[in-house]
Amino acid sequence: MSISNNFVIEMNHVSKDFKVLNRHEGLKGSLKDLFSRDYRILTAVNDISISINKGEIVGYLGPNGAGKSTTIKMMSGVLEPSRGEILVNGNVPYSNRTKNAENIGVVFGQRSQLWWALPLIESFKVLKDIYMIPDKEYNDITELYRSLVDIDPLLHKPVRQMSLGQRTLSDILAAFLHNPKIVFLDEPTIGLDVSMKAKIRDLIKGLNKEKHTTVILTTHDMGDVDALCQRIVIIDHGKMIYDNDMEHLKTYFGSYRTLRLNLKDVGWKEYLVDESKTDVMSIISDAQKYYTIRDIQLKEIETEEIIKKIYEGGTTA
């Protein structure tokens, strides 16, 4: 398998299977399970091929259980695929996990890579030693951090005293510290308020622009997708069902509008309307036969609705 100079990640017909025990109920069933060979094969990732360019921010999306985390673990070298090939920065990630780790950064959910009792600056110094970051590179990246976000109040604050948003921001800074070629971000803004979400999105965009770092983002927050991603990949039940840029997606759904009607004694009702097939005025006229309409809102379809439609099999765009 060859890799282009522009591709930092290539997956070629990659699948991952897990053996799952068919469990039995009750105490007798539990004892039986101890010696059981009654397994079934669960395919978590099913024949995925993808090439990701240097510097891209790619949204890797799908419902819970779709296979996103399994794919990320294979890309990061934690899991080995059952079939197919993966190259990350020209290397097989699971064959040499140490070398692969030198060129990637990872932020997984709420699992911090920082030292809980230490001030942030001490965690940075430990990571500097671990990754053998030269003094000049370390000073340059910390100055870049200062230009993107106000980190000085955090540097001498123990991680255990930080808010969730401050810890998430600090974890992202730590993931970029050794100038990795790829950073994997798993739900980076989950549980954060609107202000902190905006700050973290600006930070990710700034680091991507300055360092040309490839970012793979998994999220359920469509605000993250709209703000950060030039391209999205969607998987469901382990299979890839969409891979294209955001503009293509929105163009494909250009005839869709969201119609909201405020109906007396009912409240707001929402309709997803394909104007190539259904006239908006006909929906309003039908509603008027049964209700008094107090207000009408018509707006472009939101990314969240587009993704939902794709999950439901509404397109193979």
Automatic annotation (TrEMBL):
Stretches assigned to the ABC transporter domain: 29-262
Name of the featured protein: ABC-2 type transport system ATP-binding protein
GO molecular function, one term: ATP binding
Pfam families: ABC_tran
InterPro entries linked to this entry: AAA+_ATPase, ABC_transporter-like_ATP-bd, ABC_transporter_ATP-binding, P-loop_NTPase
Keywords: ATP-binding, Nucleotide-binding, Transport
SMART domains for the chain: AAA
Record has Transport as a keyword: yes
